[in-house]
Amino acid sequence: MRNVKLTVLFVAAVASFLTPFMGSATNIALPPIGKEFRADAIVLGWIATSYLLAAGIFSVPFGRIADIRGRKKVFIVGLFIYSLGSLLSAIAPSAEFLIAFRVVQGIGGAMIFATAIAIITSVFPPAERGKAIGINVGAVYVGLSLGPFIGGYLTQNFGWRSVFFINVPIGILALIIALWKLKSEWAEARGEKFDFTGSIIYSLMLLTIIYGLTESAIHFLIVGLILLLAFVLYESKIEHPVLEMRLFKDNLTFSLSSLAALLNYAATFAVGFLLSLYLQYIKNLNPQQAGMILIAQPVLMAIFAPFAGWLSDRIEPRIVASAGMAVTALSLFVFAGIDSTTTINLIVANLMFLGFGLGLFSSPNTNAIMSSVERKFFGIASATVATMRLIGQILSMALVMLVFSIIMGRVEITPEYYSSFVESVKLAFTIFSLLCFVGIFASLGRGKLR
Fold it and tell me: How far apart, in whole angstroms, are the C-alpha atoms of residue 48 and residue 68?
């Protein structure tokens, strides 16, 4: 049994490394992509957001399919689609094609997101679960750590397309290991019906809300909110919903932990995007230099996430997670004062402080979510963790693009627009610090798990 647990943990960690590595590496490559395709700031935002949006739309449906048909099957197919999307992105002939191929990547990423933590939770008992999840979260942060460094090096020396090419052999390696080593299947909801109607409403709801936010299209936003109400009402009435509303309604720990995750990611994901642009445009650094600076945050996250997961097996997860949320809010508030004269040393120090806060928050919060549900809901709970992360990341990017569109408009980031770009960055960080401050109370209010 020990060998099975170690194999599952290793394979899940490799897969969980891939997707954040891609995201953080892509952020570094955005300015060169913008120059090649003459893309404005909003289009650059969509190159990052299209992947997240696709992953967010499909994570919950694939989490439910995994519970019914088998988590291993969905996990393996996800690795294949992700690798294919990476290859297509590497050969994209235009910004529009790159956005479309990032959607393919996102679909594969959704299948990985929806199953990796569920598989770990299926094989590790509660007493060991926090540590295992902490190691998996640590793998995510190692991906985030290496993304800026390797992405910067590759972009600087081999061009931005190499950032996508490098994902292909890593994805294929993870696929081979999964096919070779994962022998068991996990499907505690086998035989239950899949909710097609709910999945379609959910997908349309998320698409219209995010498009409405990013493009300042009020009518799309209104349609999205109507679909959100319809989704909640529909899912509350059917026997086998794609998203179990009772988990939110009857389980305070689950609902507030999910809300805390949503707010945390909404407040922090776009930090790498904003600082990558700031360092390369305002500080005139090359991609490799910018990557070396941005690595400071995820390195601290990777160091502290396993420790925080271990700690949450011994004391209340809400205490550890809430402390992490508070540190994160303070760091974002410091970034809200950024301008053209801000020193690199201050940026690095504050990124390390931010990484420490995020490391303290993520593992205990995920442990609280997964430990608050019964086994047959592990897949959908895992998908919910992924979906809160993805929706938070999408909202983070949507808020940045909204700020850009209001202050800068649809323009390339050229020297005459640098002052308005810096104002946009400051406003975005101010909004993010307020979101994280609210998240402290969501984290504290979840109640005791033990």
Answer: 31
Q: What per-residue confidence (pLDDT) applies to 352?
A: 94
- What is the Cα–Cα distance from 198 to 245, expressed in whole angstroms? 12
CB atoms within 10 A of CB 126: 11
Whether the Cβ atoms of residue 443 and residue 256 lie closer than 8 Å to each other = yes
- Contact by Cβ (8 Å): 395, 213: yes
Q: Which residues contact 295 (CB under 8 A, 6 or more apart)?
A: 145, 146, 148, 149
Question: In whole angstroms, what is the distance from residue 425 CA to residue 419 CA?
Answer: 10
DSSP state at residue 94: S
The arithmetic mean of pLDDT across residues 23-39, rounded, is 88
pLDDT at 447: 59
Confidence class for position 446, pLDDT limits 50, 70, 90: low
pLDDT digits (tens, 9 = 90+) for 306-331: 888 788 778 877 888 899 999 999 99
Distance CA 121, CA 114 (A): 12
389: which 2 tokens? 């992360």
82-93 pLDDT tens trace:
999 999 999 999
Q: How far is CA 182 from the centre of its chain?
A: 25
Q: What is the Cα–Cα distance from 281 to 421, expressed in whole angstroms?
A: 10
Whole-prediction pTM: 0.79
Which superfamily does CATH assign the domain made up of 2-184+242-444 to?
MFS general substrate transporter like domains (1.20.1250.20)
**Cβ–Cβ under 8 Å, residues 53 and 401:** no
Question: Cβ distance 273 to 429 under 8 Å?
Answer: no
CA 159 to chain centre: 25
Distance CA 24, CA 160 (A): 13
